Amino acid sequence: MSTLHESDTHSEPVDRGAVIGDGIARLARWSLRLLLVAAGAFIVWWLLAKLWVGVFPVMLALIVATVLWPPTRWLRSKGVPAGARRGAGHPRGARRLLRGARRDHPVPGQPVG
């Protein structure tokens, strides 16, 4: 049971050719958009492949920095000096902080002996 509105009963018949033409025009516009997106993705992919030697270390550094930010923020809130915070961010530095500073390594700025 379809309900007809008063405006639908008095409208002129729609030409099928016009409806099909409008549908094809919409399809052409969406196809063009899809082609542009695909071309852009291909260009980005190609550039990444050519520049991967430089892009990979930057991406890796961003991931590591993101992972190490919460412990650094916590250490900063506890008043830990900047040098110790830097050491805690490095795996060897974290081990040294956990087991204590080694005595056989000289302290910078102090005479060895």
Give your account of this protein's structure:
Helix content is 73%, strand content 0%. The chain has one domain (16-99). The protein is mainly α and 113 residues long. The mean pLDDT is 79. The termini are far apart.
What is the topology?
Blueprint: H1 6-9, H2 16-77, H3 82-89, H4 91-99
Helix pairs in contact: 2-3, 3-4
In DSSP terms, counting alpha (H) and pi (I) runs of 4 or more, how many helices?
Answer: 4
Share of residues in helices: over 70%
Mean pLDDT: 79
| Beta-strand fraction estimate | under 5%
Tell me, what's the shape?
elongated
N→C terminal distance: 101 Å
Q: What is the CA-atom radius of gyration, in angstroms?
A: 33 Å
What structural keywords apply?
113 residues; single chain; mainly alpha; 4 helices
Task: Summarize this entry quickly.
This protein is an all-alpha fold and 113 residues long. 73% of the residues lie in helices and 0% in strands.
